Amino acid sequence: MGIPDRIILTLYTILMAVFAVFLILFTLQIISPTTVYAFCSTVPGRWEYAVGGVVLLLVSLRLLVTGLGGTGISTLALGEEKDGKISVSKSAVEDFVAELSNDIYGVHNAKAAAKMVESALNIRISASIEPGINIPDTTDEMKQAIRKSVFSTLGVEIKDIEVFFKHIQAKK
Known about the structure:
There is one protein chain. By secondary structure, the chain is an alpha+beta fold. The chain has 2 domains: 3-67, no CATH class; 75-168, ANL, C-terminal domain (GMP Synthetase, Chain A, domain 3, 2-Layer Sandwich). Helix content is 51%, strand content 26%. The chain is built from 5 helices and 5 strands. It is elongated.
């Protein structure tokens, strides 16, 4: 789930919490029914409430799609043979690339994200590196090892590999 989805989810959760508090106060008769009826009588004809309802509906649908995993591709199509389609799980590719990255000396806690672009892969690796390790040399070593292993295993070229070191720290 990306940052925009997390922001939307947070705002939606706050809105639902406010609604839940209102509902509790109403059912316990702390807020009188006449107050609620007076508010409800002001709603018809107000475009602001209609816009708010549409926004709430769109946010709900977005969260539903995100929650069901409808965003993103869960499999990567590697090719099509005469007998059928060849595909591999996106998480399998990401786990494979992360394992390859962790096998490089000085690199640990690697996580990878894979994305199929045209007929090639884009890979983004987030990892930690130990102090004293030459980052450019290690990055080149990672890229070469990953390109070679992924091509020999999957038969797919890697278009781009982005490496992001989030921490420079010793392995725990």
